[in-house]
Amino acid sequence: MDSSLELKAKVTQIKLPTRRSLRLATEPTPIGPSASVKEGKSLEFIEASPKRKTKLTQILEDTTDKNQDVPAPSSSKSKKRKYEAAIIPVEESQKSSTPSPKKRQKTKVEPVYIIPEVEKKKSTFKGRLGYACLNTVLRNKKSASESVFCSRTCRIDSVKKNGIEFVKDLGRKNVEDLLTIIQWNEDNNIRFMRMSSEMFPYASHGIYGYSLSYCAPLLAQVGELAKKYGHRLTTHPGQFTQLGSPKAEVVKASVRELTYHCEMMDLMDLDADSVMIIHGGGMYGDKPAALERIKRTIQQVLPQNVRDRLVLENDEMCYNAEDLLPICEELDIPLVFDYHHDILFPSSISPSKIIERANVIWARRGIRPKQHLSEPRPGAITLMERRAHADRCESLPEDLPDDMDLMIEAKDKEQAVLQLYRMYGLQPVNYASLRPPDENQTKETKGRKSMKRAQTKAAKTKLDLPEEESELSSCDEDEREMVE
């Protein structure tokens, strides 16, 4: 009797459960992760509501026998209502016992290029073909970290902000990539290349210039690799190098630029075949006087090691081959004959005669002859349009000597060389290295000419040149990559 009264008193102290609460409280407890979204939400609800769980536990202890099952209530409309299940939460480790599936990584798909056939031609040429500064296959890799090129540079403000060590590091990276390009060239039977003039940014600057000795070990590796494979490396200092300028500060800046290029090749321990090619420069309203200044600067101002590597080239604006040949013969300075420039600004002497006279100088100096080849872009009519170089060359010149080196100054760089290999059967070709030509090539140069003035101005700033130094030849060079 006393026990029944005691039980009745306990029941009156708490809220009696509904049938729905009893049914939910007696459902089996899950031992693994939630089987559904609703069940998962229920677990979270119980964790956040400890009072409700305690109330139901008290009810079970006071109103049910531990060994007796509570019958489930009959179905009713209340079953269809949304409710939060009152079940005991499982441990966090049990929730995450099933590992989530790993995401499949995307497979890198290599592009497939359709390479058109080329017209087969014949030639007795047995020399080397080369290209200038930039390898398009290595440069155009999709990942920026994989892109290989040797023309990292920066604005003068970046030098002031980051210091000269920042600039030196750009030069070091350029040289490292040059090693990669030389190896690629060897793998593709190209053993002649023009190095970028931007290898060491601001090295010849009047204020921020620096010695290349910090990079001597790496430059020595370049020279060793080139000699191992029998590669010829040359340079073409920028159009702003003006040995015939009437202004002393311009000549001094030009000499610094040539000295920098010479130091780079000397640290590579390159032989006499590694030459520096420059144009005559501006006429300054008096061509004969400018030619005399060029001659005097070479004779009296240039250091001997610089003079030993110096070569002159005919251009399409100011000095043709006939203008420069007398100076070259008098000073024993080799002459590079440029076919494209001769077409635009021809001499009265035939190309074959000019080449014959020029080769005498090359032989006397013990240096292997070299020439330049490029073609005007299709559709070009005016002189300014015809100055721009085509993407590729469609043939070798008729006057080309059999045994010499020919620099291909085309926009498609190494692809222009590989196409000539295929056309004339000059070297085996690795077809995986081929890229198709632009089928929609026009007289425009994809925006590069529009940048010419800005690039020239930047170059003048680097060398402290005055703005009026504007008689510049359009010679092929690599695109600069500004690093801030």
UniProtKB/TrEMBL annotation:
Keyword Ribosomal protein: no
Bias kind Acidic residues: ranges: 466-484
GO MF assignments: endonuclease activity; hydrolase activity
Coiled-coil ranges per UniProt: none
Record's GO cellular component terms: mitochondrion; nucleus
Record's compositionally biased regions (Basic and acidic residues): 436-447
Source organism (scientific name): Crucibulum laeve
Organism taxonomic ancestry: Eukaryota, Fungi, Dikarya, Basidiomycota, Agaricomycotina
GO biological process terms held by the UniProt record: mitochondrial DNA repair; nucleotide-excision repair; response to UV
SUPFAM superfamilies: Xylose isomerase-like (SSF51658)
Record-linked Pfam families: UvdE
Keywords: DNA damage, DNA excision, DNA repair, Endonuclease, Hydrolase, Nuclease
Gene3D superfamilies xrefs: Divalent-metal-dependent TIM barrel enzymes
Region annotation (Disordered) ranges: 17-43, 56-108, 431-484
Protein name according to UniProt: UV-endonuclease UvdE-domain-containing protein
InterPro entries the UniProt entry points to: UvdE, Xyl_isomerase-like_sf
Keyword Secreted belongs to the record: no
